Amino acid sequence: MTTTPVWDIFELRLSGPATGNPYLDVTLEAHFTQRGRSIRVPGFYDGEGQYVLRFMPDTQGEWHYKTRSSLAALEGKVGSFTATTPLKGAHGPVRVANQFHFAHADGKPFLCFGTTCYAWTHQPLELQAQTLNTLTTAGFNKIRMGVFPKDYPFNTNEPLHDVFDVGADGKRDFDRPNPVAFRHFESQIGKLRDLGIEADIIIFHPYDRWGYCDMSAEQDNRYVAYLAARLAAYRNVWWSLANEYDFLLDTKPMERWDRFFHILGENDPYGHLRSIHNGDVRMNYDHTKPWVTHVCIQNWDVKKTPEWRDAYGKPVVNDEPEYEGNIFSAWGNISAQELTHRFWITALRGGYAGHGETFEHPEDIIWWAKGGELYGDAWKRIKFLRELLEQDVKAGLTPLGGTTSWPWSRMSAAEDGDVRYIYFGEHQPAQWTTGLPLDDGDYDVDLIDTWAMTIEPAQRIAPAIPHPTRHGAVVRGGKADAAFGVRLPGRPHLALRVRRRR
Amino acid sequence: MTTTPVWDIFELRLSGPATGNPYLDVTLEAHFTQRGRSIRVPGFYDGEGQYVLRFMPDTQGEWHYKTRSSLAALEGKVGSFTATTPLKGAHGPVRVANQFHFAHADGKPFLCFGTTCYAWTHQPLELQAQTLNTLTTAGFNKIRMGVFPKDYPFNTNEPLHDVFDVGADGKRDFDRPNPVAFRHFESQIGKLRDLGIEADIIIFHPYDRWGYCDMSAEQDNRYVAYLAARLAAYRNVWWSLANEYDFLLDTKPMERWDRFFHILGENDPYGHLRSIHNGDVRMNYDHTKPWVTHVCIQNWDVKKTPEWRDAYGKPVVNDEPEYEGNIFSAWGNISAQELTHRFWITALRGGYAGHGETFEHPEDIIWWAKGGELYGDAWKRIKFLRELLEQDVKAGLTPLGGTTSWPWSRMSAAEDGDVRYIYFGEHQPAQWTTGLPLDDGDYDVDLIDTWAMTIEPAQRIAPAIPHPTRHGAVVRGGKADAAFGVRLPGRPHLALRVRRRR
Predict the structure, then answer these.
(1) Where is the DUF5060 domain positioned along the sequence (chains A, B) (predicted)?
(2) pLDDT in tens, A133-156
(3) Are residues A467 and B153, on separate chains, in Cβ contact within 8 Å?
């Protein structure tokens, strides 16, 4: 019997007629059943008379399927396969876990450290290979990437493939997806999966000269359903309805965005993560809507991360806290120090920041859109942060205090179980006590230089005992607020890690 | 005839009985008249049978006065003096000018660059002399200073003088101000005046172990009126009702703060600037109230400066955007780079930031409270900024765009007449065009390194012409948004100055 590892893809490829327009005319689905469970899986037309069903089993054992189709040739096909133990390194799709965090289906925590290469799959193949090679060691576990090519400053080249067919009249036919383009796209998703990288697939974006922006509502809806049918069986898929959806509101009003979410819900049997990304900071989508799994925003003002957690009650992924680089766009020219700083602030306020790199390049090969090589200095520090947190963070980081609580409105600190981190950022105290353990137990306290990427034991000292202060009739302080303090070198961008010895 | 320069102090000292408690029992005022004008000037008791009236003339020529008093001995005294041309360097009290800015009475722009030494007049005299010596060259033109001594971390020493008399029972008598303390305090205000420094006098604060916090409403009101009578004739006086008034709301509810403003209005004939300073960032006083002349706040989040301008419609003085230092308090341990950065952001968003320095010191002699020496690195850069702006800014800086406008929500820029400044801060573009002149006229464009304090001509290049972008149906860009661009070195904390050649 055919076998497929759990969280891998069982593919059923059926032959049928290639006449007419099967994309419009033919319905195809299958029900995959195991004991009492039945999962409806939509199929799709892959060109040249090929009709495809893809299924990602999530439990081991025998699965049976039966197709249904508007075409007699595809109707009532039955079969079965056995789902086997997952491949090494396969932990299943990423889900929301512990309200504000993520974990793989097998429970492995997923601390999100994403980067952005919007149009990397539309570049020459050599460049795509280089991008994958860079990703192998860069330390990112998520990448934002568009289905459509990009027409934007520094992005003027034609894509490798047309996403929809170009007819004899030279016009794009949005009723005919180009199977070659999609086969390429999904093969790159597969390569990312094999690198352990989540593909945050951007379905729409406004930066277009090919007409993809101007598809009709019906065409948009059909395209979203097609993506779900085609790609949902890849365990590393995340759905991002748009980059900067708000710049498309003139042609795609809000109810259509809501509907796109519904279509994904109807056609993605696995419930992959679903988000939508704003352009203007005032135009966050209402992430409280139940079909949005997590908050995906762009906002440089990362100290607000706890506000977004509070506002939406979901994981916060700030995918554009501005990018490291030197291009003329203000969102793409912050220093490596600043981006590293924003990653630490975001993480220690209970969110997840996203990376991008936008350095001028003689041939406009800029990581944020085309991939290639990384030229900056932030990515190494971000990798260092990821590795540091992955040592100890299990449930996810909960920030100490909110945006107005003392002193964590000014600095950033978070904890998870027995581990606590304090990030001083632009602050440079020569000693520190607040937030350290209340008892003098068995703790390791380490001093972390977030830029030099060093970790060394912090020098313990007596806790600071401030003179009491009187606020009206209320006397405050005059006692230490932790059992001990640490001596610090008095320079910015340092952090502390406090762990109970295990 | 007696002469007094305009904006200097004409003092009338009358002798009377020292029996009873003249502070409570005797009323004294005078009307100073010149042609049709009549100005009511309250007097005060200076101890030892001395009753004093102080008047600051604002116009030249002959002034006549006549006293009124509840004491026959002080009633109906008449006299006159001639107000002569102002002393060199005297420009009169600072007023609000151009809605969001300040100017002296003679029209000289006042670009506010303040520092903070809360309790410097309560320190040993040698230390006070050192503070004045430091201020001579430090480049600040305003200082925040309290009438009362301070009881706070790093501030545990007894003050030089009791502000109110200590009776035979060892208790402070809040019905008897100590003339020695006030004579000393005003002599220091006079020395600041002679250095060209405004004294931002903090009337109340919560950090107290002497009982000043617990005076009755009547005692508070009388004390405020006494300060006005005693100090208002100093041209460099500003009134700051409190440092961190909100921490005193439990004993002094809001209506009392409003009343203090009224009392100042009733007893300060010159209408010196009046403000009140919050502690908690959520507790800004309602600065739209008509008796508040300008916004005085503490808030580290300086990119919000345009929001405060919009909210209150008055000059914004952010006197505590955190301090340079290394003490354990989060408000007092940011780096010099960060404080310099916050000054530039505040200035180029149309506000005025305040300086403070809080470095650990073996004897707790910390500038922010006690004065002494400056140990940090920000003050030099702040002085550089002041000198730079004073070259060209006349009416005051108007920010380009608000907190949400592109790209000035991310970077900071402002203009005044023919001069415009752009501060890139954490941004490091390799070239820049936006905000530069629309015509290719006769401009000097200078590149400023805000940390190295260098000014050099910027290298002009062709303007950036970005590829057009399509937002839905709207095509944007594709053309330069200024007549020329500049090449930049691609590192953070740089600024541009653009001036039309005159």
Answers:
(1) 4-69
(2) 999 999 999 999 999 999 999 999
(3) yes
Do B376 and B441 lie in one domain? The reply is no
- Nearest chain A residue to B477 by CA distance is A153
Partners of A63 in beta bridges: A81
- Report the domain count for chain B: 3
User: Across the interface, do A430 and B360 touch by the CB < 8 Å criterion?
Assistant: yes
Q: Does residue A304 sit in the same domain as residue A388?
A: yes
| CATH number for the domain harbouring residue B41 | 2.60.40.10
Same domain, B461 and B325: no
What are the pLDDT digits (tens) for B14-66?
999 999 999 999 999 999 999 999 999 999 999 999 999 999 999 999 999 99
* Assigned token pair, B294: 């300008």
Question: Do A160 and A37 reside in the same domain of the chain?
Answer: no
Contacts of A472 in chain B (CB under 8 A): 206, 213, 247-252
Q: Is residue B399 part of a domain?
A: no
Please determine, for residue A172, whether its predicted confidence score (pLDDT) is greater than 80: yes
Closest by CA position to A327, among listed A366, A280, A284: A366
pLDDT band at B122 (very low <50, low <70, confident <90, very high): very high
- Which chain B residue's Cα is nearest to A244? B471
Q: Check whether residue A179 and residue A55 sit in a common domain.
A: no
Residue B243's pLDDT is: 94
CB of A270 closer than 8 Å to CB of A93: yes
Question: To probe the interface with A, which of B305, B339, B410, B496 has the most A CB atoms within 10 Å?
Answer: B410
CB A331 within 8 A of CB A322: yes
Confidence label for B416 from pLDDT (cuts 50, 70 and 90): very high
Share of chain B above pLDDT 70, in %: 99
Is the ipTM above a cut-off of 0.85?
A: yes
- Give me the domain span that covers residue B477: 418-500
Residues of B in contact with A404 (CB under 8 A): 280-282
Query: Distance (Å, rounded) from C-alpha B137 to C-alpha B382?
Result: 12
Domain-ending residue, one of B23, B56, B84 = B84
Interchain CB distance below 8 Å, B472 and A432:
no
A315, A433: one domain: no
Would you call B275 exposed, middle or buried from its count of C-beta atoms within 10 A (0-12, 13-18, 19+)?
buried
